[in-house]
């Protein structure tokens, strides 16, 4: 039996969440911060770009037709990161994650053999994160999607230990997908907020998980980093050097930072076949998964073509195309 082609980086838009938070205290301020970080030129493009893609983002039939055209058998569908709303208070955050989990599950239920889903966990309220994960699993989802940080908290914060523990125990997937970059207005032109901001946030978040010893304490954690892990995999030698040369850098984790890349998973969305080959070299072909960022413009409309461009061996190609993700989705929640 041929292994299905599985895209682990695809999004669903959930209008009910935006209706839920509209007008609440803190919402306007969050939108203003997002506008400052992106800049007016990016916002002028973003609105029409998303608007054109509403059918792919909301209608399962349109999604499935697009998957057929791409040669994708299965998508792991996660809420648009715009739905994180990490500004929200505890009561609102619980409403957001419950609605996100339920609506994502409903979307995927249209084709359960082809659509698997992820929910949300409110990182701004660590005490809710495990509850959100449990609720996602109860809906039949495969895990949760999180950003690279929450206001005032990095992923190395001890408050997240219960989340990592429970995800490890259940085999749930955790999809690390940044939204917004704290470099703020420095990136407010030329869409640097995304092209530089996303890979920066990935690198910072993964470094926190590595250097803090989080991955030592939770070796079975199934964490998938979007955008190929950002800048970290191709610049991991600098981290290794610091760990070896400085007592402060090496104090928190037991092994060379580069060794932890083989404990993480990465999507293939790096937009450069040479970078993809390097990611596979440092992380291992068994740790890279096909990803497209469907259907946004910073993704790829031909994920398999992007994978072929890396000129991998047949075994590595098949691993990234679907075998690795199939194993993850089979092991998790089994």
From TrEMBL:
InterPro entries: ACMSD, Amidohydro-rel, Metal_Hydrolase. GO terms for molecular function: carboxy-lyase activity; hydrolase activity. Keywords: Hydrolase, Lyase. The keyword Hydrolase applies. Residues 6-329 form the Amidohydrolase-related domain. It holds the Pfam family Amidohydro_2. Coiled coil: none annotated. Gene3D superfamilies: Metal-dependent hydrolases. GO terms for biological process: secondary metabolic process. GO terms for cellular component: cytoplasm. It comes from the Bacteria. This is Amidohydrolase. The lineage of its organism: Bacteria, Bacillati, Actinomycetota, Actinomycetes, Kitasatosporales.
């Amino acid at each position: 039996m041929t292994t299905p082609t599985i895209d682990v980086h695809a999004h669903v838009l959930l209008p009910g969440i935006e209706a839920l938070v509209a007008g609440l205290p803190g919402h306007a301020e969050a939108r203003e911060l997002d506008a400052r970080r992106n800049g007016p030129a990016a916002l002028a493009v973003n609105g029409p770009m998303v608007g054109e893609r509403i059918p792919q983002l909301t209608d399962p039939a349109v999604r499935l037709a697009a998957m057929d055209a791409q040669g994708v058998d299965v998508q792991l569908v996660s809420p648009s990161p715009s739905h994180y709303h990490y500004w929200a208070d505890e009561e609102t955050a619980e409403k957001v994650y419950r609605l996100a989990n339920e609506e994502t599950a409903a979307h995927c239920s249209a084709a359960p053999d082809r659509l698997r889903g992820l929910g949300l966990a409110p990182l701004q309220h660590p005490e809710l994160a495990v509850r959100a994960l449990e609720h996602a699993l109860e809906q039949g989802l495969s895990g949760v999607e999180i950003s690279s940080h929450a206001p005032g908290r990095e992923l190395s914060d001890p408050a997240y230990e219960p989340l990592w523990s429970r995800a490890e125990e259940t085999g749930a997937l955790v999809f690390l997908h940044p939204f917004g970059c704290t470099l703020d207005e420095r990136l407010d032109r030329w869409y640097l907020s995304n092209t530089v901001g996303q890979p920066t946030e990935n690198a910072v978040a993964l470094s926190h998980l590595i250097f803090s010893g989080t991955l030592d304490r939770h070796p079975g954690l199934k964490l998938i980093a979007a955008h190929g892990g950002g800048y970290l995999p191709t610049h991991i030698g600098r981290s290794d050097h610091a760990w070896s040369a400085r007592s402060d850098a090496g104090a928190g984790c037991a092994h060379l930072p580069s060794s932890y890349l083989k404990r993480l998973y990465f999507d293939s969305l790096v937009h450069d076949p040479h970078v993809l080959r390097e990611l596979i070299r440092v992380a291992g072909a068994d740790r890279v998964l096909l990803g497209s960022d469907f259907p946004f413009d910073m993704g790829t409309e031909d994920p398999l073509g992007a994978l072929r461009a890396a000129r991998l061996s047949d075994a590595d190609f098949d691993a990234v195309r679907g075998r690795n993700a199939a194993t993850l989705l089979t092991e998790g929640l089994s």
